[in-house]
Amino acid sequence: MRLFMKPETFLMASALLCALLGLGYPLSCEVCTGSGPTCSGSVKTCDADQDSCVVIVAETSKKSYRSVNTHKGCIKSSACSTGILSITVGPENYMVSNTHCCQSDGCNHDAVPAPQNNRTENGLQCPTCIAPFKETCSSTKEVLCVGQETHCVAFVGKVQAGIKFATQGCATKNTCHTKPGTLVPSASHTYVISQVNCLPGPQPSDKAK
Ligand SMILES: *[C@@H]1O[C@H](CO)[C@@H](O)[C@H](O)[C@H]1NC(C)=O
Question: Which pLDDT tens digit goes with each residue over 133-143?
Answer without folding.
Answer: 999 999 889 99
